[in-house]
Write a structure and sequence with these properties.
Helix content: 10-25%
Distance between the termini: 24 Å
Number of strands: 22
Largest sheet: 3 strands, antiparallel
Radius of gyration: 22 Å
Strand order of the largest sheet: 11-13-12
């Protein structure tokens, strides 16, 4: 599953799809109609809390099953949780407002039972994303078909065409074999996909997965394996590739790919004695106030989640910094090894200052992100056109 699939899922049924991969570590009491112990979930809909719980569920599952996902999300749990919490939180905020307005009903026990079902899941089920239909009950829309809506979750048994915020009317989900030209996959009933001919069809999963030592250039590896870097590329056990312990030597590889030497939660850090050497050492990611150096990982991984390596300047040959909190809105930001410095809380670096993600109607950088809609002609705009016209 890609991060893009995860964030797109927020528009259709955030709770239904995102709680499909792992367990909550906490347990709550029984409901009046169910004597089983169910996983603890928020009893009131709070976007930030649910986003965090969802992110923890996903990231724990990545550690359990090693599915086909970004390697950094498996290696660095805190980074995984931070990244997914931020992206999910934006999509869940619209639903929180709809719950407060009485346009959506949140059903905590349905969410708890969804998590319970995932508890007994196999890694094959995790890899296949088999829980979309089974977990479709935690949110219920109260708006009838044909009535005005602004987000999908408001509709009772249907969807709201266009981007969240578009003035639309609820339409019934399309069933298998029916058209999905209005809103693509969002238009299809849970468990269905919109194919290239814009027809709702049953989700198709590639059951063929390469096994150990089998070629993986054109076929994905089964859960627990990763496509290695040999020529030709073959599937190898994940923990065989990422195997080295804290303090062991590792190789610095050009680029921002994941470290292919060090084990879970470790990064391959360059040598202070010879910054140009391709050899480094495996170590834990530094915490707040600790020294940091360039590593075989993207710059956002050089420190623990929520921190960045301040003071690094490749032009001045200053290759030692200190881990500091990501700057909040209104604080200075700048370039960091040729890429925008990250800001805290989903803010973005614009003209050297951390600024909120632009809303609909506000200016945006070319191909930049928007809090609402898409960046088109350097302006954030909602796309309310039918799917087939986009």
């Amino acid at each position: 599953m890609s991060l893009e699939h995860l964030t797109v899922a927020c528009k259709k049924a955030p709770i239904a799809i995102v709680f499909t991969l792992a367990l909550s570590p906490m347990w709550a009491g029984c409901s009046e109609s169910d004597t089983r112990r169910l996983p603890d979930v928020p009893q009131q809909f709070a976007a930030s809390e649910i986003a965090m719980r969802v992110a923890e569920a996903y990231c724990d599952a990545f550690r359990r099953c090693y599915p086909d996902i970004r390697t950094t999300f498996i290696l660095y749990r805190d980074h995984c949780i931070s990244a997914l919490t931020e992206s999910l939180g934006r999509g869940l905020t619209d639903i929180e407002m709809a719950v407060q307005a009485g346009r959506v009903v949140y059903v905590p026990n349905a969410l708890a039972r969804c998590i319970e079902a995932i508890d007994g899941s196999s890694c094959q089920q995790v890899d296949r994303e088999d829980f979309e239909a089974a977990c479709a009950g935690p949110i219920e829309g109260t708006i009838d078909i044909g009535q005005p809506c602004s987000i999908d979750s408001e509709c009772n048994g249907g969807f709201c065409p266009g981007d969240n915020g578009c003035e639309s009317r609820c339409q019934a989900f399309s069933l298998e074999g029916e058209r999905c030209a209005i809103d693509g996959e969002n238009q299809c009933l849970a468990g269905l996909d919109c194919d290239t001919s814009q027809i709702c069809v049953k989700k198709q999963f590639l059951d063929l997965r390469a096994d150990v030592n089998q070629p993986c250039d054109f076929v994905k590896c089964r859960p627990g394996l990763v496509c290695g870097s040999t020529t030709p590329r073959t599937c190898v056990p994940f923990d065989q590739v990422f195997s080295k312990s804290d303090g062991e030597s590792c190789t610095i590889i050009e680029g921002d790919g994941a470290n292919e030497n060090c084990g879970l939660d470790l990064i391959c850090v360059s040598s202070l004695d010879d910054p140009n050497s391709r050899m480094g050492g495996c170590q834990e990611r530094p915490q707040l106030g600790s020294p940091c150096r360039p590593a075989q990982a993207a710059p956002e991984l050089w420190c623990a989640a929520g921190l960045f390596c301040s003071g690094i300047d490749s032009d001045a040959q200053s290759l030692t910094g200190v881990c500091e909190p990501l700057p909040p809105v209104g604080s200075p930001c700048g370039s960091h090894f040729g890429r925008p410095r990250f800001c805290n809380g989903g803010a973005i670096c614009i003209d050297g200052v951390c600024q909120p993600m632009p809303q609909s109607g506000e200016s945006c950088a070319e191909n930049g992100g928007c809090e609402e809609g898409h960046c088109l002609d350097e302006v954030c705009m909602l796309d309310c056109r039918p799917y087939e016209q986009r």
